[in-house]
Amino acid sequence: VILAQAYSVSKMKSLRSFRIAGLAAVGAICGAHGLSPCDSEAGQVCPSSQGKEIGECLQDPSKHQLTDIDGEPRELEPGEKPLELSDSCKDFIKINAACDAEIEQHCSSMYFHGDTMTCLTTWTKPDVLGDACKAALPKASDEDEEVDAEKAAWRAQKKAARKAAMDAIEKEKSGNKEGKKKKKKKAKKEL
User: I need a surface site. Which of 1, 25, 117, 187 has the fewest CB within 10 A?
Assistant: First the structure.
């Protein structure tokens, strides 16, 4: 009886660990999308703002809505300082302002979104970006070029491997065709 109880307790612990691991995996997958540099600040003082409103709210302290852990409005605690925006958030606000037309037209109005920077720097061709937007975007670093060179070498290696595999398949196909022709000739001779 004691052995059976110990077995069921260990089984329950492993099941609990499995559930926790499963929940962690789901959380990682669901939260895998990128966050904007202002997500933390917006969540703290502008929880109900969306799109362009986030930038307007973050820049105007009179629009900040402080909430407690339950989401209920609250006032500043004694000695608590108003929220200061991080430098990365301030830069992101400037980019959203400078690239307003580009975000509207080419990025499906994804203001202050996790994909805003990806849209402006990767998905949108540089020649359609305005001068003000180009100037506001961060410049590519030399490290990116090194990674690109490594990636280009990796791509060339993969391309060569694919070509070799396709050549082998073609050779095998042509070999099978010749084998079939020989079998047909042999069958005709036998008749």
Answer: 1
Secondary structure class of 185 (helix, strand, coil)? helix
Chain position carrying tokens 């830069």: 91
Contact between 88 and 58 under an 8 Å Cβ cutoff? The reply is no
Confidence band of 179 (pLDDT split at 50, 70, 90): low
> Is 80 exceeded by the pLDDT of residue 146?
no
66, HSE (Cβ side, Cα atoms, 13 Å): 10
Inform me whether the pLDDT recorded for 96 exceeds 70: yes
DSSP 60-123: -GGG---B-TTS-B-PPPTTPPPP---HHHHHHHHHHHHTHHHHHHHSTT-TT-TTHHHIIIII
Give the C-alpha separation, 35 to 74, whole Å.
26
